[in-house]
Design a protein that fits this description.
By secondary structure, the chain is mainly α. It contains ten helices and two strands; from the N terminus they run H-H-H-H-E-H-H-H-H-H-H-E.
């Protein structure tokens, strides 16, 4: 079964009717969300059309350097999102760098692993396969890393006195911050754990649904979705672990002291 049902722009416009209905209800109920809905919808349309044109160009160019450049740009934007989502963040470049670098490294390792060993396109860096896979991995890793870092910084700031009391009693800095570290790691892992637990029972993931609608046999779509979820889970774990440990390294020193002056509060 290889056939698919083509959509035209009229179909897409009809699908937006319910969004207009939400906006109308917001006006009637005085929720004040109609402007936000309109801006978000316009941004979504413009961004997706731009991405579509960019991907079409990249697929035709088939350049490894252009593919690498776009992947780095994606990681840069994702790193900025991680930085912006933290109520308390590391000062200076560290606030952006730790999240961006750990996420980029984790996403790149897992994406290359999946391309070279499982999907095996020719060439392995083909933008038609590499960029969509990297984007899915990066987006989910971003959520885990941002939650892990935000939880870590908030918890350490809140529990500062308890941590310093442990240090006065002779504990090492690693022992004193271990509870905060575990809370942060659990927070970062929670989204992917919940997603894996609910997939197929509560929800059908977007990639699998899209493949089925495009005519792919459901059993084949399941294989691809399992592959993607395993890769996303692995990248999220690596990214969260790397970001939390790197941030803890920055917030402590060799003299077993907390360095909370390196944290700043988001404006």
């Amino acid at each position: 079964m290889n056939s698919y049902i083509a959509l035209d722009y009229t179909d897409v416009l009809l699908a937006s009717v319910f969004l207009f209905l939400n906006g109308a209800l917001s006006i009637v109920l005085r929720l004040g969300l109609e402007r936000q809905l309109a801006i978000a919808a316009v941004r979504m349309v413009v961004q997706l059309f731009m991405v579509g044109l960019l991907l079409k160009f990249l697929f035709e160019a088939a350049s490894p350097w252009l593919t690498l450049g776009v992947a780095l740009a994606m990681a840069g934007f994702a790193g900025r999102e991680i930085w912006a989502r933290q109520e308390r963040r590391l000062a200076g470049f560290w606030g952006f760098g730790i999240g961006a670098v750990t996420m980029l490294v984790a996403g790149a390792i897992v994406t290359v692993y999946g391309l070279v060993l499982q999907i095996q396109p020719d060439p392995w860096w083909s933008p038609r396969f590499a960029l969509p896979l990297f984007g899915m991995v990066l987006g989910n890793t971003m959520t885990g890393v941002s939650l892990g870092l935000d939880t870590l910084h908030t918890t350490i700031s809140r529990e500062r006195r308890a941590i310093e009391a442990q240090l006065l009693l002779g504990r090492t800095i690693r022992e004193a911050v271990a509870p905060a570290m575990r809370v942060a790691l659990r927070s970062g892992f929670t989204p992917i754990v919940n997603a894996m637990a609910a997939i197929g029972v509560v929800s059908l993931p977007g990639m699998m649904t899209g493949q089925i609608l495009s005519g792919l046999d459901p059993s084949e779509a399941v294989k691809y979705q399992l592959l993607i979820m395993f890769l996303i889970g692995g990248a999220t774990g690596l990214g969260v672990l790397g970001a939390v440990f790197a941030s803890l390294w920055r917030l402590t020193d060799e003299r077993h002291r907390l360095r909370l002056e390196r944290l700043v509060t988001a404006p």
